[in-house]
Amino acid sequence: MKKATLFALKEDRDALLLELQKNGDLMLISDGEKNPLEGAAEISDQLQQTKEVLKFVDLHAPKKSLFSAKPTVAYDRFLKEIQEGEKLTKQLSELSERISTKRNEAATMLAQVAALDAWTDMDIPLEDLQPTENTTYFAGYMEDAQVPVFKEDIASLNAEVISFKEAPEGRALLIFAHKDSVAQVKHFLKAHDFLDMVFPKRTGLVKEIAVDLTKAAQQKNTVADDLEVEAKTLSGRQGELELYYDQLATKEERMAQGGAETDKTFYLEGWCRADRTGAIEKAVASVTDAYELTFLDPAEGEIPPSVMENNALVRPYESVVELYSRPLPGTMDPNLFMAPFHFIFFGMMLSDAGYGLVLTVALYILMKVLKPKDFVGKLTMVVLLGSISTIIWGAAFGGWFGLEWKPLLFVPMKEPLKMLALCFGLGGLHLIVGICLKLYSDLKSGNVIGAIADEASWLIIFAGLAMMAVLPGEIGKWTALFGAAIIVLFGGREKKGIFSRLMSGVLSLYNISGYLSDLLSYSRLFALGLATGVIAMVINTIAGMLAGAGPVGIAAAVVVLVGGHIFNIIINILGAFVHSSRLQYIEFFGKFFQTGGRAFVPLALRTKYTDVTN
Length: 614
What we know:
- The protein is built from 20 helices and 15 strands.
- The protein is an alpha+beta fold and 614 residues long.
- A hairpin with a 2-residue loop joins strand 12 and strand 13.
- Helix 14 packs parallel to helix 20.
């Protein structure tokens, strides 16, 4: 990584930012505030409004096909903001607000009708329901079981109770009381949890008001329905809105950071790849010759963003690393060493050649049609490569849609010890590669003693244990003891005093249990592969039983076969990916991987709905 600094004239800033965005190689950075350009806030507001309008349009526009590809737009056309897009956004935003208002008003009216339902038998117009000089009234609800008790309580008072229909809140009651009895009536109402009713400020009988409110609500819903038709018509221009959204989004990113400035000049700072400095300078020079552009190495203690660079086969597995953490700049990129193991482990866990064929074809078509990019594209490619591995391992184990057919190696369910030996063998190789990578990293950084004492010693022990299993004599034992001696002598080298060092070294030998635990983790390769095969066999067995029940049974068997195997594929894809990745994250990366890197996110054309072409 290089740190780029650019000085240029303010009059060229817009054109320079546009060209740098098209170039896509410079990640702008700032100390403190970003100093957005004038008008950036308005663009953000327009973008938010367009985002809300697109949500509204999704409710009215025809549903897009899952396999529909993004429309392509030439770069020159993409730069020309569509004025109709802005007008259409405002028009649909107003429509959405009007529809929402009408619906809310109608809902409020219907809620009032529902609240008045218990009072429709009241023969007193609401305008006449008023306190008089000598009386007042209480309208509300009381639990039905409390009404008789309440009437008994106020029987001696100068008050009258009129009951109406029951509502969810309780029995509707209208109580008239003489002013001399008001305080006592209030006391009894409170004692019986009386809930006040607030009538709408309207005139006439309640039943008439309810009819009027219902008609008014219907009218407002009718108006909203007409507006919905208009919105549906305008939603046919969804493509214009999506293009306008992408134009605003790229413009917002471009204007978010204008850099420091004087009256006539401005200053930008950013990170770029060392191999792309020439491309950045060419982009700047294409706009103006009045500039100063320099590229410097990161300062001491400064951590630049990191970029992983790999070949076409390894590149998809960068997504697996990104789900964990990016490597610290200047340290080892694990993808080249991790990718083969992830490929192998994924196939072993899914382990059905028929499933692998279906998955390979489906993902290949999906990638051709949808053309997923960036992280999603990489992740999809990881699963596609894993499906190819599944075909290989499925053929080796003789698994085809839960049926056994001509295994090239052996059938795991019939020879589980061979399968476990294979899993532990691959797991041991995986762990040793991780240790070797740590050894290389230590040697590269000059930590020779650490490389020998912490990594090479364990490799010697493992080599000795392997020789004890396959070679006669005691050479294996002495080799293992030699490795253990290195650990005892140097494992506690940071301690003070000979006794403390030796004790710490002896205790370091306990790490053998950690390696054993790591090795046992690879039994999940067998477990998940076994689960895939057993579930597939169960599906086939159930389908076979149904098929013997006549035409209806055959139809049911087809449903079970298709639905069951699709479910088995989906659930085991998830399991294969998660557990393959887990073996990398825990058992492999823990041996050597240094985390702490951050993503390199340059100023670039990032669109959601369209693909921009040169």
